[in-house]
Amino acid sequence: MNVMRELGVGLLGCGTVGTGVIRLLNDAGLAERVGAALSVRAVVVRDLERDRDPVVPVDCLTDDLHRVIDAPDIDIVVEVMGGIDPAHGAIEKALSNGKQVVTANKALLALHGDSLFALAQKNSADLLFEASAAGGVPVVRALRESLASDRVVSIHGIINGTSNYVLTRMETLGESLDDAVTKAQEAGYAEADPSFDVGGQDAAQKLQVLSALAFGLSMSTEVQRVQGIDSIQPADFTHAASFGYRIKPLAVARGGENAVESWVGPALVPMNHVLAGVNDVFNACYLKSEAVGPLLFYGQGAGMMPTAMSVVSDVIEAGRKLAAGAPGGSLPAVQSEAVADSSSSEPQSVQEQPWYLRLCCRDQPGVLGRVAATLGGHGVSINKLVQKNAADASSAEVVILTHVAGTDSVRAAVAEIDNTADTTQPTLIMPVEDPA
Predict the structure, then answer these.
(1) Catalytic residue among 99, 206, 248, 321, which?
(2) What is the pTM of this model?
(3) Which end of the chain has fewer CB atoms < 10 Å from its terminal CB, N or C?
């Protein structure tokens, strides 16, 4: 009778996601799916005295990182502590020791991913990261494996649940941004300091990971333009709807001729597009590839069990490789030299599209004429225009939907307009993005 091999698992961190990981690893049925038993042998935490979920094995708790990264009885290291340090050094040491590593740390991958993958390859180990980009939505593995024989053309993602939840409340309940953020915090969907989510940085780091997989970029290639949702007002949803659109927090990357354009920010999406129906904390990734065409990945992008599920799916993959005696080889992508040489953090105006502009103008004769002339001088023509009185009687709110125009032209025109006395506050700019 064959005795099933037992693999030791060590966790770095045991917060919300780590607790969910332990809960899933306790499923006895995993052994049959892995080809080996998975045993949690050590859990590194900062506070040994803190009360924890009963599912966490108290006898495995330690505050010593080396109990996991250097211990011979640990085969798979699961990093769910977050942040850059000490996670970076711990993963480096674990990979140097030839251990399989699973992480959900998008910030770390965006900063040090290239060197960590090189280290994994050098030591015949794997660095797996399904949970780093969209929580429980399995888009990383799809890009890394299922679409490896295809060529991805574009990514349109709603990959920050906090921003999507906030915009959904603003649109459906008419709440202000501050009130919607407060509700998100009360529901546990936003941090005490929500700026990383609301400002777009969280989605930008996730898009870096996805772009590396889709286009063969360096993992450290920064997103070219990041815009937060903090300038949006409830009235913008009404204006967008009158034009036939909904406002969504998008993360977009598209390939051009030896270049990749990438940006994060709020955008107008046609009401009949599938992404327009992604609400609350749900995430979605709408991919287009040359062979398959459009693909949609949709589900919960955050929370204990959705994220833990993705982490444990990587643990299963790592375990299967160890059980088969074939660890290593899970590189994120084969880097395209042509794209890598031309892609940088400098903006690439690959796509032309319509634009939504909301201006707060002085309510005086000649102002609209000068605004239209400035736009026209940059090759931007007006498709639709709505003017409403502002709260201040001396100002008027002007909303413009342009015809198709390039990013540089629109932004240059708006910068010129905002540099005059005709506007009383910065103009809100949002692209009209049709992923079809």
Answers:
(1) 206
(2) 0.93
(3) N
pLDDT tens digits along 193-223:
999 999 999 999 999 999 999 999 999 999 9
Q: How confident is the model over 283-341, as pLDDT tens digits?
A: 999 999 999 999 999 999 888 999 999 999 999 999 999 999 988 876 665 444 444 44
Q: Is 121 exposed, middle or buried (0-12, 13-18, 19+ CB in 10 A)?
A: middle
Q: Do 158 and 248 meet the contact criterion of CB atoms below 8 Å apart?
A: yes
What is the pLDDT at residue 334?
Answer: 46
SS3 361: strand
| CA distance linking residue 227 with residue 245, whole number of Å | 19
Bridge partners (DSSP) of residue 260 are 255
Please state, in angstroms and as integers, the Cα–Cα distance from residue 130 to each residue in 58, 313, 314, following that order: 28, 8, 7
Domains, the chain, in order of start with CATH, read 6-138+304-331 (3.40.50.720), 144-301+338-342 (3.30.360.10), 352-431 (3.30.70.260)
C-beta separation of 10 from 44 below 8 A? yes
For residue 423, give the amino acid letter. Answer: T
- Contacts of 291-297 with C-beta under 8 Å, sequence gap 24+, read 291/149, 291/150, 291/151, 292/147, 292/150, 294/435, 294/436, 295/142, 297/134, 297/137, 297/138, 297/139, 297/142
pLDDT over threshold 70, residue 61: yes
Match 């920010």 to its residue by tokens: 265
Q: Return the number of other C-beta atoms located less than 10 Å from residue 338's C-beta.
A: 11
Residue with tokens 């280290």: 119
Confidence of residue 390 (pLDDT cuts 50, 70, 90): low
Q: Which residues fall within 8 angstroms of residue 193, CB to CB, at 6 or more apart?
A: none
Instruction: Identify the H or E element spanning 318.
Output: helix 304-323
Distances (CA, A) of 117 to 216, 218, 234, 329: 14, 11, 44, 10
Place of tokens 């991958």: 109
The model's pLDDT over 239-262, given as tens digits with 9 standing for 90+, comes to: 999 999 999 999 999 987 778 999
335 versus 400: the higher-pLDDT residue is 400
CB 312 within 8 A of CB 146: no
Q: Is 206 a catalytic residue?
A: yes
Q: Which of 264-294 are b and which e, b meaning 16 or more Cβ less than 10 Å from the residue's Cβ?
A: bbbbbbbeebbbbebbbbbbbbbbbbeeeee
Does 345 score more than 70 pLDDT? no
